[in-house]
Design a protein that fits this description.
Blueprint (H helix, E strand, L loop, with lengths): L4 H16 L36 H6 L15 H16 L3 H5 L2 E8 L10 H11 L4 E13 L2 E12 L4 E14 L2 E11 L14 H15 L4 H5 L2 E8 L10 H11 L4 E13 L2 E12 L5 E14 L2 E11 L1 H61 L3
Parallel strand pairs: 1-5, 6-10
Antiparallel strand pairs: 2-3, 3-4, 4-5, 7-8, 8-9, 9-10
Length: 391
């Protein structure tokens, strides 16, 4: 069979156009648009090499294999998949929950970081981010593992959020599954969970030994205000105080405040002498010895033993229990000295009583002596008179 020159040219023209019909638009076949921000990424430069080097239509076609009767789905590069996180992160930075929710596909499922409830529709996802965005979160990928395929991509790893509203940083594990929907890549599934080894009850931050020891200074500084309410505020709502100079356990904020109303009159200033610290999730313990300088009592020094138990409550570490007792050896020595003083005072009193008795007897003897002398003198005069009368 012979073909005319015109037939051959027409056939070649149709073949070339038919091949290009299966190739999604690439940066080399689209009009050039400069990306000014991460949200202006070229959503159509999805083939291997897109975004870094220009890919010819023929090269792109060689990387996509699909049946002639199927729609060819784009396969993104690993770099491009990682850049999709920036789109989601920029939506967070807008602080608009609607923009964040629009980053998710129509049938998306969100298992969020700080909610037990799966979110399976636009309204549920938007509602979650209304609360989450109040923390002003800004994310950063720390570790990423990407897998790609035609029309889908997976990015799993570890990210960290800077909660700009509180200054707190939170690490978490993440899974993103993306699909190509309505000519753009969207989140089909996101699963986010806090690092299990860092999770603590009541969202309490982890402490170091030094941080636990430094909690004493918050209490000591409260003492220095001479304000009993400021000291009482350092205790949890259900704290128990066994104070140094009172027999009565204090189990309510009002009772704790009442104790410090009296104690602060001595203007105490504490200092740790010996400290033994232990801590775990949502609790810490500091036990040892301290001393107080009582500036309102001629700078008298009082040493004591202490136990502080701390719990995380209302966003800060507070005292759940304090037990303070005077040093027992010093207390016993003071008691012995008191008893000796009492004995000495008793002895002195006894000596005074004995002296009084002796003095009383001396007076009595003297009085008796004077009476006898006067009687003798009177008897002598009588005898002399009788002698004169010759009787």
């Amino acid at each position: 069979m012979k073909f005319s020159t015109a037939t051959i040219v027409a056939t070649l023209f149709l073949v070339n156009h038919k091949t290009e019909a299966f190739v999604p638009a690439s940066p080399s076949t689209q009009s050039h648009v400069s990306a000014r921000t991460s949200t202006e990424l070229n959503l159509f430069g999805l083939f291997k090499g897109a975004g870094t080097t220009k890919v010819k239509a023929s090269e792109a076609a060689a990387k996509v294999v699909a049946p002639a009767d199927a729609t060819v789905l784009p396969t993104p590069t690993e770099e491009y998949v990682r850049s999709l996180f920036k789109l989601w992160n920029d939506a967070l930075a807008s602080e608009d929950p609607r923009l964040v929710a629009k980053r998710f596909a129509k049938n998306a499922v969100l298992l969020p970081t700080v909610s037990d409830v799966p979110r399976t529709d636009y309204e549920g996802i938007e509602e979650y981010f209304e609360t989450f965005l109040k923390l002003k979160p800004l994310g950063e990928i720390l570790q990423s593992n990407v897998h790609v395929g035609p029309g889908w991509a997976q990015d799993v790893g570890i990210y960290e959020f800077n909660m700009r509203a509180t200054g707190k940083k939170v690490k978490a594990r993440y899974s993103f599954v993306y699909i190509y929907e309505d000519d753009q890549w969207k989140v089909l599934h996101q699963h986010s969970s806090q690092m299990p080894e860092e999770v603590t009850p009541n969202d309490a931050p982890k402490l170091t030994k030094e941080q636990v020891a430094n909690l004493f200074h918050l209490w000591n500084d409260a003492l220095d205000t001479f304000d009993p309410e400021a000291v009482a505020n350092r205790y949890t709502k259900k704290a128990v105080l066994l104070p140094t100079v009172s027999d009565i356990p204090r189990t309510t904020p009002e009772e704790i405040k009442d104790y410090f109303t009296l104690f602060l009159k001595s203007k105490p200033r504490g200092k740790i002498l010996q400290s033994f610290v232990q801590f775990g999730p949502n609790w810490a313990k500091d036990v040892g010895t301290y001393e107080f300088t009582l500036r309102g009592d001629n700078n008298k020094i009082v040493r004591a033993r202490y136990t502080f138990i701390y719990r995380f409550e209302d966003g800060q570490w507070k005292i759940s229990h304090q037990h303070s007792s005077q040093m027992p050896e010093e207390l016993m020595a003071a008691a012995a000295a008191c008893q000796l003083q009492q004995a000495t005072e008793k002895s002195e009193e006894q000596q005074i009583d004995d002296a009084k008795v002796l003095a009383s007897k001396a007076v009595e003897v003297e009085e008796q002596g004077e009476s006898k002398t006067q009687s003798q003198k009177k008897g002598s005069k009588t005898r002399a008179l009788l002698d004169k009368l010759g009787l």
